[in-house]
Amino acid sequence: MPFLRARFLGQRLAQPAKRWNSTATAGLKADLLRVTKTENPKALVANKDLIFGRTFSDHMITAEWAENKGWDAPEVRPYDKICLDPSAVVFHYASECFEGMKAYKDKQGKIRLFRPDMNMARMNRSTARIALPQFDGDELLKVIGEYLKIDKRWIPEGRGYSLYLRPTMIGTQESLGVAASNRAMLFVIGSPVGPYYPTGFSAVSLKATNEYVRAWPRGTGDSKIGGNYAPGLLPQLLASKQGYQQNLWLFGENDQLTEVGAMNLFVLWKNEQGETELATPPLDGSILPGVTRDSILSLARSWGEFKVTERYMNMPQLRDAVREKRVLEVFGAGTACIVTPVKTIEYNGEDLHIPLDPSDPTAQAGPITKRVNDTMMDIQYGEIEHPWSVVVN
């Protein structure tokens, strides 16, 4: 399949270090794929009844790795439970990382993936960060392509619908002790989904959080590992009890802006020099290098209509800009939702109201937020021919 090699536009990212125990062992090979199809296919769920991440397709991908021999042959097999020993290191030391990507069905019925090479590269950086094994991303994409053809009926039709894919790697060594796992499992599951939020494309309210910290420079915020997410659950619950849908994570003495919940943050404003600027925090090790983030930066730069920057911003600056009516739009961005418009940010007891679309009082998103969302979907569903949209042959 003609998958693209990873090219991270606008991102200055170091290559992951090779795993310390890397040896001349077997790599992951798609041509060794074994397929066992289910004898009991499940009933499909109607699009209108889909809840994000609650329904799963008939099959899954698995591949085992051992330090002394490398990767076993990958398998596509019926979706089922995974059996692990209670002492498996994943349960005790969060030896786990994952990706989020989607498969789309265009109007001609072709299966499409959106920049899958970037997901593979990022997952290899995540595995390297927590001392799990590397794999050949092109080979895994070939396996995923075969899996998608087998479970094609689970890719829902219609704009806004897709099969959400969750590649995951876990440490499976049966041992209590803080050390790199000498065994691992790679698996991929698929979940048919519609819009991420049940209410559809609508603006959310945020609580700016400085009591808790999501990530920090040179930490693990730039890796998609499970240990980054559980600590955010309590702050999310606390924000929800106060009527806010998400946290706006702040960091440091100046309340530096970082991310929105599990999404990257974008601010469209008139900056201090009076320029219209789309800004997002830089990749300093605390920010996840999102595929959607990189795509938005590339699109906006190609439009050439306003300044596009990756730079530090803090909450007092944003608060003052809101008060001075210099903020035009704010949104979060990620694979699951594409973009999420923001209408309110609570900071130190003050609700700061973010404009949506001044020309339409009923609008749930500003014109640039909506344009980004529509353009991304046009590419993902093949309505605009673009090298980011990769057809599974």
From TrEMBL:
Keywords: Amino-acid biosynthesis, Aminotransferase, Branched-chain amino acid biosynthesis, Pyridoxal phosphate, Transferase. GO terms for cellular component: mitochondrion. This is Branched-chain-amino-acid aminotransferase. The keyword Heme does not apply. The modification N6-(pyridoxal phosphate)lysine is found at residue 224. Its cofactor is pyridoxal 5'-phosphate. CDD domains: BCAT_beta_family. PROSITE patterns: AA_TRANSFER_CLASS_4 (PS00770). GO terms for molecular function: branched-chain-amino-acid transaminase activity. It catalyses: L-leucine + 2-oxoglutarate = 4-methyl-2-oxopentanoate + L-glutamate; L-isoleucine + 2-oxoglutarate = (S)-3-methyl-2-oxopentanoate + L-glutamate; L-valine + 2-oxoglutarate = 3-methyl-2-oxobutanoate + L-glutamate. It comes from Circinella minor. InterPro entries: Aminotrans_IV (IPR001544), Aminotrans_IV_CS (IPR018300), Aminotransferase-like (IPR036038), B_amino_transII (IPR005786), BCAT-like_C (IPR043132), BCAT-like_N (IPR043131), BCAT_family (IPR033939).
